[in-house]
Design goal:
The protein is an all-alpha fold. It is 70% helix and 0% strand. The protein contains 9 helices and no strands. The longest helix has 24 residues.
Length: 184
């Protein structure tokens, strides 16, 4: 995500001008590069949404999300951030957020997922899983699966205990995701 465009052009064997002619902005390049992964993810998300059992759909959605996340670190970074200045990425992220809400709400309405879990909790899980993948990719590349299943147990309705901190609001979540895409 943060590689210099000059380095990308050099590794692709093209001049920087050629890169800019085809991709006027970094986000244009990222969207083109991540479109295949995005299609893979969205197809898996649709399968999860269509499952008969709401809990299994919720689990399938998260497994699909994290499998794609583990398979492509750049895509993981893309999923974790918002880019308010780009309508295309906002549309993609809005669609993903609706999917998260759909599978989460359906599982909650079925009594399978604790009612106080929010979209922000799922995004926090995406962030923590991304860090887990970074830390274990060469030593234990599937360690993220254990973390996911520990969290799934925590999300079960029958395991619910009160949580002392309220979830982030939608505005706080959006601001946090946008903050991640700010230049450092």
């Amino acid at each position: 995500m943060d590689a210099s465009l000059e380095k990308i052009a050099r590794e692709a064997g093209v001049a920087i001008g050629t890169l800019y002619r085809h991709f006027p902005t970094r986000l244009d390049l990222l969207i083109a590069a991540f479109t295949p992964r995005l299609r893979e993810f969205l197809a898996g998300a649709t399968r999860a949404q269509e499952m008969d059992d709401p809990w299994e759909g919720f689990v399938c959605y998260l497994e699909n999300l994290f499998t794609v996340q583990a398979g492509d670190r750049g895509f993981n970074d893309f999923l974790s951030r918002r880019f308010p200045e780009n309508a295309d990425t906002e549309h993609i992220h809005d669609r993903m957020c609706r999917q998260i809400e759909d599978v989460l709400t359906r599982a909650q309405e079925a009594g399978a997922v604790r009612p106080d879990i929010t979209q922000a909790d799922i995004v926090n899980l995406i962030w923590s899983n991304g860090r887990m993948i970074d830390a274990t990719s060469t030593t234990a590349p599937n360690a993220w699966r254990r973390h996911l299943y520990l969290m799934l147990d925590a999300y079960r309705a029958e395991r619910a205990h009160s949580i002392p901190e309220p979830p982030m609001t939608d505005a706080q979540l959006y601001a946090a995701m946008a903050h991640l895409s700010e230049p450092k």
